[in-house]
Specification:
Strand order of the largest sheet of chain B: 3-2-4-5-7-6-12
CATH superfamily of the largest domain in chain A: Chloramphenicol acetyltransferase-like domain
Number of strands of chain A: 20
CATH topology of the largest domain in chain B: Rossmann fold
CATH class of the largest domain in chain B: Alpha Beta
Radius of gyration of chain B: 19 Å
Strand content of chain B: 15-25%
Structural class of chain B: alpha/beta
Number of helices of chain B: 13
CATH topology of the largest domain in chain A: Chloramphenicol Acetyltransferase
Oligomer: heterodimer
Number of strands of chain B: 14
Chain lengths: 407, 325
């Protein structure tokens, strides 16, 4: 018996809206099955279940917005039959009413992103706050318009929010949205806010240190060119795949950079899941995890990357991809940038930044030549690691790129 | 068109029914020689004779029971009870017999009885003649409860009630009897199952009936001058309540005020409010409000009686508060 809870799909996520269930009570599920779809600021995310069992009870209905940690369903393991009800669902509905209540939740630095495992489920404690007064119509309208009631000044009796108040705010929002960016979907606004929250927290809490290393890419690119020549157009590899694999292998050598800083504790992870920053055409970015990047072949990585980019841009990611990343890799080379000084995505402890591979003068063995050069940077959390580990990592990264055939 | 009073409209309705159907007869206290204690049946004794316009002893239970018996026997009696307060003497006949007979007889015997009575305060008739107890009767399954407010309804509801196979109670507000209105010469029966929007508006719905209708319309007129458009719904029938009319109105205006001269606690206003909460909760932009009769025995002194009844000024002030104006 376990509780299937609304996962935190990012340090900054406070609530999610259940879009649909892919299962019904009585359905058998096994670990990894996608059983629900949830909408967050980052898009529509497919949520996986983390153990085998049978869906016993569904507690949240599509359309409901619930806080992170809310029990959404009960999964019965095969042996157990007696069902025990969980504590009351902490659903907050309808949607707009959640805004103010949830927003008050202390955005603790200790929140870790992957709370999906039922075993680690912990009840979300909502702070006791005076209930927001709003007419039922105002609540319904705010939900329809996607307006956070917490942002609406009430003019009714006792400061209650009524229809006119919501409409006023909606009007004002429309005006500013029009002025700022035409046709910006509300969800983009949400994503911007989510990024803002995470990045502000990172800069506030994480003492970053930065290291930089120039890497001669001639061997890697020569190998890649030869390799691609043998391949059909469809099977060709991108340089990014080599870089991902090299980062993964280097993390194997310097595992301290792979993991989290939670509850004032450094928690390195054995599994290497690289969060690959994918920018969205409409603005904003998402960093879905490439699971077990160190164990995947280049072909597998290429396929994974293809799939991830497609699904990210379609707004159809899985929960594990949203939450499992143990480090972030930002590759801005295609935009012409040569160096990336990243901001760590909490509670991760490092971010690798890769720039454009450019031809540059390169001195080696007393000779000056022109080589394709990549500048790799590391932004790391000084609470978790020191420059020495960072330096070791960049050196290892370089090392793997010099032996591309072994990647 | 002709201009007639509510009183004459009721009389014309009785006359029409008596002419149309010789099973129809009127009985009650002083309805014959005296012409009815509110002068509604004046002249009917001469026109129809003592067989069909029957004076009864002062025994509401007795003559209401006789009416039930006549109805069961195939007649179409109109029983007049002087005031709703006195109808309590006949409450046993109304609730335990008229309303239950169809059920108790396994569907064999229906009771096509019409009981008319005056209701409401405002005429300085004090605490035993002035209450608005129609809400109580609206509590009873098995009967219909009508509250004609307009002259048109006073004229038209009776025949439709007589055609109903089951007991129908008609409550005539005594303060409306002298009210005049234009009515077509051929004005006839009207439906008895729909509420009516008497004044359309977009900002707030006033749900009322009987004398409350005219106070509400007057208030709506004043409010319109201040830019607040109140929609006024005349319930017309208190049982069964016509949800289909007042709920869409609340859906439109998002605010509801119930004006009911009856007492507040457990009254018909509470039932209407509950239905709005049940069926239109998410349309409400303000709490449902009620203006009801004060919960006191009706005072005799004029100023105190008026203070105990809903007034136009109270309706205006309440709606302004609801609108945040």
């Amino acid at each position: 018996m376990s509780e299937f809870i609304m996962p935190s799909l990012g340090a900054d996520m406070e609530t999610g809206i259940l879009v649909e269930w892919n299962v019904e009570p009585g359905d058998r599920v096994k670990r990894g099955d996608i059983i629900a779809v949830v909408e967050t600021d980052k898009g529509v995310i497919e949520i996986e279940v983390f153990e085998d069992g049978v869906v016993d009870e569904i507690l949240v209905q599509p359309g409901e917005e619930v806080a992170v940690g809310t029990v959404m369903a009960i999964i019965r393991s095969e042996e157990v039959t007696a069902a025990k009800k969980p504590p009351a669902v902490e659903a907050v509905r309808p949607k707009p009413s959640t805004g103010p209540v949830i927003k008050q939740a202390p955005a603790g630095p200790e929140e870790k992103p992957s709370l999906v495992q039922p075993a680690e489920a912990r009840p979300l404690i909502l702070p006791t706050k005076k209930r927001l007064k709003a007419s039922p119509l105002a609540r319904k309208l705010a939900a329809e318009l996607g307006i956070d009631l917490g942002t609406v000044p009430g003019t009714g009796p006792d400061g209650a929010i009524n229809q006119a108040d919501v409409e006023r705010v909606a009007q004002a929002q429309k005006a500013t949205e029009k002025a700022a960016k035409p046709a910006a979907a509300e969800f983009r606004v949400g994503m911007r806010q989510a990024i803002a929250a995470a990045m502000a927290r990172s800069n506030r809490e994480i003492p970053h240190y930065y290291l930089e290393k120039r890497i001669d890419m001639s061997r890697a690119l020569q190998w890649l060119e030869a390799e691609n020549r043998r391949r059909s157009v469809k099977e060709r590899l991108l340089p990014a795949v080599l870089l991902i694999k090299a980062v993964a292998l280097a993390l194997g050598d310097v595992p301290e950079l792979n993991g989290y800083w939670i509850d004032d504790q450094h928690q390195p992870r054995k599994e290497i899941h690289i969060g690959f920053a994918i920018s969205l055409r409409q603005g904003g970015l998402v960093t879905p995890a490439i699971h077990h990047a160190d164990l995947k072949s280049l072909d597998e990585l290429m396929a994974t990357l293809d799939d991830l980019i497609t699904r990210t841009r379609a707004g159809r990611l899985r929960s594990s991809e949203m939450t499992d990343a143990t480090i972030t890799l930002t590759h801005l080379g295609d935009l012409g940038v040569e160096k990336v000084y990243g901001v760590i995505y909490p509670p991760q402890v490092a971010l690798v930044g890769l720039g454009k591979i450019t031809e540059a003068p390169w001195a080696e063995n007393g000779l000056l030549g022109v080589r394709p050069v990549l500048t790799a940077t590391l932004a790391a959390d000084h609470r978790a690691t020191d420059g020495r580990q960072g330096a070791k990592f960049l050196e290892a990264f370089n090392h793997y790129l010099q032996e591309p055939d072994k990647l | 068109m002709m201009k007639i009073t509510y009183r004459v409209a009721v009389r014309e309705a009785i006359r029409e029914a008596m002419h149309k159907d010789d099973r129809v007869f009127l009985m009650g206290e002083d309805v014959g020689r005296y012409g009815g204690c509110f002068a509604i049946s004046k002249g009917l004794l001469d026109e129809f004779g003592p067989e069909r316009i029957r004076d009864t002893p002062l025994s509401e239970s007795g003559f209401t029971g006789a009416g039930i018996g006549a109805a069961l026997g195939g007649m179409r009696p109109i029983v007049e009870v002087m005031t709703v307060n006195f109808s309590l003497l006949a409450a046993d006949q109304i609730l335990n017999t008229a309303a239950t007979y169809l059920h108790m007889s396994g569907g064999l015997f229906n009771v096509p009885l019409v009981i008319r009575m005056s209701t409401g305060g405002g005429k300085q008739l004090a605490a035993q003649h002035s209450h608005s107890l129609e809400g109580w009767y609206a509590h009873i399954p098995g009967i219909k409860v009508l509250a004609p407010a307009t002259v048109e309804d006073a004229r038209g509801m009776l025949w439709t009630a007589l055609e109903d196979p089951d007991p129908v109670l008609i409550f005539e507000n005594a303060t409306l009897l002298n009210m005049e209105a234009e009515l077509p010469e051929d004005a006839g029966p009207v439906d008895i199952d729909r509420a009516q929007v008497r004044r359309p508006g977009r900002d707030v719905t006033i749900i009322t009936y009987g004398a409350g209708l005219f106070k509400s319309l007057e208030a709506a007129k004043v409010l319109a001058g201040e830019g607040i458009e109140a929609e006024v719904v005349d319930l017309r029938t208190l049982r069964p309540l016509d949800n289909e009319t007042f709920l869409p109105s609340v859906d439109k205006t998002h605010r509801a005020l119930i004006v009911d001269e009856g007492w507040r606690s457990g009254g018909i206003s509470a039932e209407i409010s509950a239905r709005i909460m049940e069926e239109a909760f998410y349309e409400l932009d303000a709490p449902v409000e009620r203006i009801c009769g004060a919960e006191v025995p009706m005072p005799y002194a004029r100023h105190m009686e008026q203070a105990a009844l809903p007034q136009v000024e109270t309706i205006i002030a309440t709606i302004k508060r609801m609108m945040g104006a």
